[in-house]
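Bench notes, afternoon.
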Amino acid sequence: MPPEKLKIFKSLEPWDFENILPLRKPVEKCWQPIEFLPNPSQGPEQFEQEVRALSQRVLGLSDEYFVMLVGNMLTEDALPTYQTVINTFDGVRDETGSCPCPGAIWTGMDS
């Protein structure tokens, strides 16, 4: 990136810290799929019962919903790829893995 454009990105860092980074949800507050799925550690009978109950609850969902769900799963699976690509851009590159710049913080894997 030309130095004059990089200078613009660097000049926006204080604004990023104040306006963009507060939008990140703390990892502890992010839900995980396991919170909504049957728990196999409760034993095979309980697990099978919960799987059957879940299957009954989703019978009425439309195909569009499942298309969206699969698309979201693919997107989630590719998040590390997106982070790696973004990390190649001047102005947000994190060469150390611990850069304090807003771009590196935003794209960090704990986002």
